[in-house]
Structure formats: structure tokens, C-alpha cells
Amino acid sequence: MPTCDIDAAISVMPKFSAIKPLTIVDELRELLEQNRKEIDSLVALEGELTWDNFVTQFEEIGDRVSRFWSPIRHLHGVADSEELRTAYTEAIAMLTEYNTELAQSDPLFAAFKQLRYNADFESLQPVQKRVIDNTLRDFRLGGIDLDQSKRKHFQDFNTELSQLTTKFSENILDATQAWAKNIKNDSQLVGLPERSLDLAKENAKQRNQSGYTLTLDYPCYDSVMTYCDNRNLRREMYEAYVTRASDRGPQANLFDNSRNIDRILVLRHKLARLLSFSSYAEYSLATKMAPSVASVIEFLEDLARRSAGAAKRDYGQLTAFAIDNLAIDSVEPWDIPYCTEKLRQHAFSFSAEELRPYFPTTRVIEGLFKTVRRLFGIVVEQLYEIDRWHPDVLVYSVRDEAGILRGVFYLDLYSREQKRGGAWMDECIVRRKHNDIVQHPVAYLTCNFTPPVNQNDSLLTHDEVLTLFHEFGHGLHHILTLVDYSSVSGINGVPWDGVELPSQFLENWVWERSALDEVSGHFKTGKPIPDELFERMCAAKNFQAGLHISRQLEFAIFDFRIHAGGSDSQSVQAILDQVREQVSVIEPTLYNRFQHSFSHIFAGGYAAGYYSYKWAEVLAADAFSRFVTEGVFNPNTGKSFRECFLEPGGSEDLMILFERFRGRGPQIDPLLYQAGLSAR
Ligand SMILES: [Zn+2]
């Protein structure tokens, strides 16, 4: 097996231990200055511009920034500190200014127009043409056609937006960390699983407290909400959690995102209007697969209609059960996960905790690698002694069946302080070819699983295994690409509403017995999940699916509506109330301010794009239905998936790729079937 390729790949990976917050700003300034100079001489080139003398150099310049910035952005997410945050805030302003400058550069725009309309264009490869066309589209979306005064506004809006969105997430992190509750007596914590108690004890110890300390970190919060019999405690934590970073709750006004939300929406609307879109939603769709604002609303409302009956049924079943069995006469929001879990145990005699012993992390990871080997023919191997940001982080290489190195990824599994919650995949290095040498892609896979206690292998829930597969799907999309130009390689250039296709697709294998046997085994005995437990688990799969979908649709419709209105439209809260009226079957508390920590849309890339999850679910379920027909481990079908989706990345139109894989356009029915909302 070749080893020099891996050495070359490792040699360009970031040196996290060498990143010094105090020098970031200066280093970035120097790098951006260097880039500006090179771009100036590039656009001043005499004679005909060509792919080789222009685009290649331009990609190189962009890649330099991306490789410098990616590890810093990553550290800000997983190893935050005061110093880093200060540097990050200053640096992000510089970067935004730089990016806006490029987006507004007349000479660059003129250069790409020349490339597009000169005689050579027709002789370029389709992927190269796409790079140029996408660049021109993005130039136009970046306001290049605006007159000078409007351009100045455009630039100011972008700078302010980027500061606001950073502040938005910082407020959530601060609000999450500022709340803790110490409990001396475990009689208050009846129902909590052993490992949650251990974790709470550990939390207390770290704070020099006795007893148990509960926090708003998701694993702790979720465990209390799902299992703790103490209703008052659930209510108290629920209130603290859903009012994070808002004007309500125990930390009212301390980290309030209200103004950030209002201002972000105003600025986004102005930005869209400057570019002659009627709303930010319309602007957002310019780079997406969905054809129009109306088509998205119609899609979401269609799903809402088709799932409304199921949601009402689910809620009715839940409340009836709570009255009869739990002596809860009126099911409140803080009772829902708890009652749901009790009902699940009652109806399916099944608890999510029952499965945890079968998912020791090490086994799960090995099984995941075996699964993708069978499906896509790729081999994952651990790499040692690679520089990383925390000792828990693991590093792996990915090779194809021919032994060719395809890429590398970091795996950061456990939640800890100074690490943002949730799970995600991010790019560290993007694949491209330069002087005939491949720059191998590198990904960060980040999760927030319960950390191991007392040196034992951490045990995962089935949901966490699902999350891991999901993020791994994104990772493969990034790593297996064969595209040589960074702007359309991997997930780059893939429309947002299609980018969840590989990730949601891969989740299906966590429901397949044969795949599940690869990723599970009792942590003490190694025994497989017993048949009857597996059957109960499958029976429980679509348990309360109607309620789940209605919640997702509430988020998606809310996101789309607040971005589809004008700046003088109703308040965010009023729109949320209306959406809930329309979609939700659970009456929320008046103080609920979930939008104040809805970072997907206020601090991430999902603004007017949250619908993408459902949109992509349709694609993923439909793609999987081909495996249902041809065999879930059918290597030919796997190869076809790899070739149609994972390797082309953003180099081709996603709808065309989909039709190539499926032999027809996407259909909604496999999703409805999968969610148990209709019969096959
Ligand atoms: Zn995802």
C-alpha cells in the first residue's frame, strides 16, 4: 500500500497546537494582503485569459485562505476560549471585508466574464464551465451589478450580519454554561439512568460541589427531560432551556438574542431587496434546488396536511396514556419527552436505554467502517500521532478498493466544556488538483456524545449511532469526491437543499438488521441485540412520528415565513404563534423562546433553508428505496450511489444526478412510507 501519499496528506494538515490566538489577526492580515497583491497582478495579466493562467491561480489563492481559516473556525467551535473568541471576532470581520471585496471586484468580474464569453469556453470540460458559471452567478448574487452607493450598503450589511450571527451563538453558549443546579440528595433524581447520575456527580466534583450538578448541556438536559420522575425539576430545567439567550426565564435579559434576531432579519431583507429579490427567501433559493418560494411553501404545507392526522392521533394517545397511567391530567411541554418515553416502554416495552449496552463506542465505530466498506468498497484506517486539539480526538484515513488514498478525517465524539453542542461535519481541507498533484480532502466530524466515565468505553444510544452515521454520510460526500476544482468538489457547489441527501441516506443502515449486527454487541458479553429487542425497536421506530414531523415542519415553516416577509412584517413571535396554530398540536408555554437558540437559521447556513432537511429526506428515502429493491448491501447499487452522488460533489446539477441514479425524478411516497404515514 502506498505510504508516501499519506505522508504528503498529513504534511499539509493543520498544526492545532501551533495556533496562537494572539497572532491570528496579524497572520490573517498578512495572508490577505499577499492575496490582494496576487489578485491584482492576476487581473492585470496581458493577453487572453485562460483556465490555466487565471482560474487555476485564483483557486490557489482562495484555497490558501480556506486552509488558514478552517482550523481556527473549528477551534472556535470545539475548544473555545476568551482569547480565541476575541481573535475570532476581529478576524471574521477582516475575512468578511475581504470576501465582500472579492465579490465586489469589477476587474475580477470582468475577468470571469471574459473567460465565459471568449472562444475557449466551449473547449473547456463541463466541470470547468460549471466553475465559471457558478462564479458569475455568485458574483451577481454578491451585488456586483449594484451602483457604488448600494454596494457600500451591501458591504456594511454583510459585515454587521456576520458580527450579529457570531454574537448570537456566543449568547447561547454563555447562557447554556451560566446555568447549573446542584442537588444534594439523589431522591430528587429518581428515574435518571446510572450513567447520567455519574455524569452529574462528575460535574459536581469538577465544580468542587458535593452531590449532583445538572447542566443545560444537551445530554444532561435530555436525560432529565426523558427520565426524571421529578416533575418540578423537569419544569425548572425546561424553562431554563427554552428561554436560553432570551428575555424570559431564570436568566432573562442576561444573554438576550431578541435584538440580534430582529436586526438579522431586517438586514437580510435589505440585502435581498438590494439585489432585486422580493425577499430573503427568494434570494436564498437562487442557489438551491427548489424552484420557487411558492413551491417550498406548497411542499411543506402538503407534508403538514398529510401528517396532521397522525400528529393529532399521536398527541391524543400520549395524553390519554398520561392520564390513565401517570396521573398527569394535563400534559405540559416538560412532560412530553417523559410521557413519550413511558408510553414507548408501555406500548413496546422498549426503552432507548435498553439498547445502550449494545452500542459500545469502539464497536460502533468499527461497525460503521465495515458498513461503508461493504457499501462503497472503501477502507478506513486509524492514523496515529497526528496533531489535534484534544486527546479524545481520533484521526483516520480513507482508501478506495484500489488502495488509493481518498482523504482523511478527524473524529471528535464527546461533549465537553468549551465545545459547541450538536453534531456536524466541516471541511478542513478541500480536494483539488494543483500541478497534477491531488490535495486530499480532510474533514472534521464532530459529535457531542456522553463521554466515557472511569475509563470505560462510552455506551451510545441508538439515536447517537444514527447521528454518527448521519455525519459520516456528510464526511463521505466531502472525502470521496473526485472533482479537481475546489469550488465544486465535495459538498462545495452542492445546493443546500440537497446537501443532506448522503447523510440522511446513510441513516437507513442503522435500521437494517445485518448492518446493525456489525455496529452492535453487548459491552460485557459481545452478544448481538436479541431478536425480540430488535423487533420491539423496529416497532417503535415510527412511534409518535406524526408529532415529530409536525415539530420539524413547525421549524421549517417558521424559518421560511420569517424570511419570506418584508421588513415591516409582523414580529417574529407573532409569526411563530401563527405557525404553531397551523401546524403544532402541542400548546407551548408563553415563555417558550426556542427561536432565541435556533442557531441553524440565525447563526448557521440554514436561513430560509431549514426546509432542506425535509426536502433532502424525500431524496434520501427515494434513493434508499432502490436499495430496498436491489439489496441493502448490493455492491453495484452502492457503487452507483458513490458514482452518482459522492464522487461528483457539486460538479453537476443535483436533479440530473438524481435522475441518473434513480432513472426518474424524486417521489415523495417512499418518505411517507418510511415515516409510517402511508402504506407501501
Ligand atoms: Zn446533516
Features of the shown structure:
680 residues; alpha+beta; two-stranded antiparallel sheet; 27 helices; globular; binds zinc ion
Structural summary, described in words:
The structure is a single chain. Helix 2 runs antiparallel to helix 3 and helix 16 packs across helix 19. With 680 residues, the chain is α+β, with helices and mostly antiparallel strands. The strands form 3 sheets. It has a 5-stranded mixed sheet, sandwiched between helices. The longest helix has 34 residues. It is globular and about 80 Å long. The mean pLDDT is 93. The protein contains 27 helices and 9 strands. Helix content is 57%, strand content 7%. Strand 7 and strand 8 form a beta hairpin. The structure holds zinc ion. The site of zinc ion has 4 residues, from helix 17.
Class from helix and strand fractions: alpha+beta
Question: With helices defined by DSSP (H or I, 4 residues minimum), what is the helix count?
Answer: 27
- End-to-end separation: 46 Å
- The main sheet orders its strands as 3-4-5-9-6
Number of strands: 9
The helical percent reads 55-70%
* Morphology call: globular
**Weakly predicted, low-confidence segments:** none
The share of residues in extended strands comes to 5-15%
Bound molecules: zinc ion
The Rg value, from CA coordinates, equals 25 Å
Topology:
Layout: H1 4-11, H2 21-43, H3 51-78, H4 82-103, H5 106-117, H6 126-141, H7 148-178, E1 180-183, H8 194-206, E2 212-215, H9 218-227, H10 231-242, H11 258-274, H12 280-285, H13 293-326, H14 336-348, H15 352-355, H16 361-376, E3 379-383, E4 394-399, E5 405-414, E6 424-429, E7 432-434, E8 437-439, E9 442-449, H17 462-479, H18 501-507, H19 513-519, H20 531-541, H21 545-564, H22 572-583, H23 599-602, H24 612-630, H25 635-646, H26 654-662, H27 669-674
Parallel strand pairs: 5-9
Antiparallel strand pairs: 1-2, 3-4, 4-5, 6-9, 7-8
The protein binds zinc ion (ZN).
